[in-house]
Specification:
This protein is mostly helical. The chain is built from 15 helices and no strands. Residues 70-115 are annotated as: Disordered.
Amino acid sequence: MGEEREDPQKLKRIAAAAYDYENDPRWADYWSNILIPPHMASRSDVVDHFKRKFYQRYIDADLVVEAMPSSSSSQPAKQSASASAATNDQARPRSSGSSTRSSGTSATAGSNSNQTSLRWDRKTIQFSVNAWVFIVAVLAMFPLIPRSLSSRAYRLAFIGSACSSLYSLYSLHGTPRAWNLPAIQVYFQSIIATKDFIHFIYCLTFVTSHLGLKLALIPILCRALEHAAKFLRRNFSRSTLYRKYLEDPCVWVESNITTLSILSSHSEIGLGFLLIISLFSWQRNIIQTFMYWQLLKLMYHAPATAGYHQSVWTKIGRTVNPFVQRYAPFLNSPISAIQRWWFR
């Protein structure tokens, strides 16, 4: 009977292991939002565990995912605990020897606590920056704020979000192995399609712009809201204040991450057309417009954002193509040339 019960789960685990995660844009988005230390993100067992969690969430909800086994960092703690127990047993006959061993044990426990506090500090810093970005972005979008304060909050929101993306890139991917051209090229090839790098370039594009496009703050707000909600749910779920005021909004944010990503992609593509329109005004910036459309092209092809952007462009094509065919067929040649560049 036990084997019959285990067979379905065994088949599901085999199917989960054989699933093509790399060609599923949801996996790249899911993995980019997993906040774990860099040394754990490089371990194959950790990646396989989160792949099974992804498969359970999006593909087969009946798959049973076991808890991830404790990491090797728990072994020093066990060794230190056994060493302290041995020290206590030997404390009566040999007090001087026990003091030496206990100091070594306390040093081991202290190093473990320092590593834990370091990991905690990284998450706390990320949360603090994203919460600050959310507040200043709301101030920048609020219509009753004075213009000088609104423009300053606008730039601070992009600077803060750029710093958050850069810190996340450093936490997940570290730095180049060597500071020479080949090593830097390999490093950039590994991060250029990640969501954090794309968001970092997006922030740099608008923080230096003279156009105060409030629509550009929507992706900033969505990202900050998503990261802040995840941190609050993971670390303050037992807090009375959280349960009373923040639990429902955080649950809503985590259950509507796809909606927020679709909203961000709509606003990012809309900004591209607004920049084209701005070329006919005195505030035009040809270089910024060209660079931003290169970024939109990267968003269309990068796995982390491709699913959402391709969906929006498909809707735009279904809406615009009938009008072009009916009222402006002479635009078919320019549109075909643009499409060849876009898909290249």
